[in-house]
Amino acid sequence: MIFFCFLCCGFTLSAQQKTPKALDIYLLMGQSNMSGRGKINDSLSKISNDRVFMLDSNFNWVPAKHPVHFDKPKHVGVGPGLSFGIEMAKSNPSVSIGLVPCAVGGTSISVWEPNALDSSSKKHPYDDALKRIKAAMKSGTIKGVIWHQGESDSKPKRSKEYFANLEKLIYRIRQEVGNPTLPFIVGELGDFKPAYITFNEIIRSLPEHVNFTSVVSSSGLIHKGDTTHFDARSEEEFGRRFSKAMLEVQKSSTK
């Protein structure tokens, strides 16, 4: 019995030693391509980094692995978040990275505002994200946001209103975290449909209108067969592109 208790105490101490502290925290926001719908195979399921953590559905920091998101458990898969986090960790060996998954598949930007209900998922995307953001901030500092969303707003009528809504969202998130220069990186939709290509033309001008933002190209990335969702390899590459853009904007925000 004494030996058993010793083992338990040893396990608890080990777990405490691995608890991340003073994290560089990044918010992963948007809809299904940020959540990830790429197929997870054996090799992808084993990818991790001992300095990259994710906030799980119970608000606990755990080692980051695919899938990072849990918005729709039956559908989640490989997204850009994990490769993004690993690249950010590689860029600075002295820090640990905290990923905060907030994306909800199928959501329009219109429900990414306070008190808004997404009728399909029955979730409050913005309010739920804010709860996770506030919980995460207890463990470190929010260093940036990566955002991929727009398939639900790519029709002509909605796309005309999109830019203004995106500007409002960026301003609101920066207010929430108390950082007016918080880097906000937006990913293009895949060039799989004419409406997506037109949508990308709209969002590419974001850095001209909002400081400390960047738009990441989806050029060369492919879908998984449904002309909407990126395949696993493309999601991994997208995450690396997000990290490159994030690092560039972070440098500009500290000048």
Q: What is the N-to-C order of secondary-structure elements (H for helix, E for strand)?
A: HEHHEEHEHEHEHHEH
Class in CATH?
Alpha Beta
Overall pLDDT confidence: 92
CATH topology: Rossmann fold
Question: What's the shape?
Answer: globular
What composes the largest sheet? 7 strands, mixed
- Quaternary status: single chain
The CATH architecture designation is: 3-Layer(aba) Sandwich
Output the number of helix runs. 9
* Total count of strands: 7
Helix content: 40-55%
Query: What does the radius of gyration come to?
Result: 18 Å
Unreliable residue stretches? 1-17
Strand residues, percent: 5-15%
Number of domains: 1
Write the layout of secondary structure elements.
Elements: H1 2-17, E1 23-30, H2 32-35, H3 42-45, E2 52-55, E3 61-63, H4 81-91, E4 97-101, H5 125-136, E5 140-148, H6 156-177, E6 184-187, H7 194-203, H8 206-209, E7 213-216, H9 232-253
Parallel strand pairs: 1-4, 1-5, 2-4, 5-6, 6-7
Antiparallel strand pairs: 2-3
Helix pairs in contact: 4-9, 6-7
Notes on the protein architecture:
With 255 residues, this protein is of the alpha/beta class. Helices cover 41% and strands 15% of the residues. It is built from 9 helices and 7 strands. It has helices spanning 2-17, 32-35, 42-45, 81-91, 125-136, 156-177, 194-203, 206-209, 232-253; strands at residues 23-30, 52-55, 61-63, 97-101, 140-148, 184-187, 213-216. The chain has a 7-stranded mixed sheet with strand order 3-2-4-1-5-6-7, with helices on both faces. A hairpin with a 5-residue loop joins strand 2 and strand 3 (61-63). Helix 4 (81-91) crosses helix 9 (232-253) and helix 6 packs across helix 7 (194-203). 42% of the residues are buried. Mean pLDDT is 92; it is low at 1-17.
